[in-house]
Amino acid sequence: MAASLALRRDFFSLAKILGGISQLGPRGLSACSSQRKCSQTPFHFLQTSSPFFHTATYLSSTPLTITVTDEPDTLFQKVLVLVKAHDRAVLDSYEFFATMAAKELGITMGKVSEPPKDIERLTLLKSVHIYKKHRVQYEMRTHYRCIELLHITGCTAQVYLEYIQRNLPEGVAMEVTKTAMEKIPDHILEPIWKDHPIDDKSSK
Amino acid sequence: MAASLSSSGSARLMTALARSSVLYNSFESRSLHVTAVCCKNRAARIRIGKGDKPLTYEQAHHPHQIAHRKGWLSQHTSNLKGVEGAAERTVEDVFIRRFMFGTFHGCLANEVVIKRRGNMLVVCALMLQKLPPQKFYFLIGYSESLLSHFYKCPVKLDIQTLQDKAVYKYL
């Protein structure tokens, strides 16, 4: 996904440049040689086993069944999605992904805000034995991003949140706050003194 | 600056100060305070040598470059604010790194990257092409099944192979 590609930039870019055709794998090599001649691979095609291969993670998901019910859908006034991560670039790309998904599904978006980051610092002694004056500081930064969705139904919210959460990148946490709208109960709608005016007159 | 004072330059500086104190009055002489050598940072740094030691990108950059030029080797949410479970994840990570180092002995080209997506553990590694692919596939399947039985969660291995180690610079 677009979100996870941002994480791989430092680590795998160098390897992929040098790995070259290592991504093709033995299946790719045979397909390549059958269609056209690859100048890099005839040497390896002659060997019985190719040294190039690479495995990738394939995420399989079971198809969800659609259920139709008669009961009325819950209405949400506001759905707040707060995402936390250590890396600001990951949050930027995730926010782009979530806003694009909401726009495609036709969900009205409120504001997308960035609450200020939290830094948790620890100060430890640098040396094992003495040297109290020399210390080392470590810090853990938590960046936030808040996405607001307005006037959304329960079904839409469930589908959207499930899609968002399946594509959450590693190292990113999410908190969802839903503000539901409920019908006012009937016994509060009218004030009590309007219904029983006779009681006051009879007590006097 | 402090480093240069504590090494061989200190002797020359002392003699220079001694000579200057002879010319000036004694109450104008400056004293030299040398700090202990432990003030140098040695964490995750490979010292400069003759120029024949090959270093990967990970090894060449110091730990203060994390989040600037380096990424993270272990990605999970338990170090974020308000999330628990950091110690358990760290212990799991240490075990997984030692397990990978031992199972694929001599084949690891770079550090192992561990990612946690939901319940799933994804272990990413760069390998050298020392073994034939059949043995690699067997070791990958063996480690995946063993680790998933051990940690009670789906474990997937992402392996990419290289001819040689990717050298960033020589120190």
Automatic annotation (TrEMBL), chain A:
It is found in: Mitochondrion. Residues 80-177 form the Small ribosomal subunit protein uS10 domain. Pfam families: Ribosomal_S10. It comes from the Eukaryota. Its main location: mitochondrion. The keyword Membrane does not apply. Keywords: Mitochondrion, Ribonucleoprotein, Ribosomal protein. Belongs to the universal ribosomal protein uS10 family. This is Small ribosomal subunit protein uS10m.
UniProtKB/TrEMBL annotation, chain B:
Its main location: mitochondrion. The keyword Mitochondrion applies. Pfam families: MRP-S24 (PF14955). Keywords: Mitochondrion, Ribonucleoprotein, Ribosomal protein, Transit peptide. It comes from the Eukaryota. GO terms for cellular component: ribosome. It is found in: Mitochondrion. InterPro entries: Ribosomal_uS3m (IPR026146). Belongs to the universal ribosomal protein uS3 family. This is 28S ribosomal protein S24, mitochondrial. The gene is MRPS24.
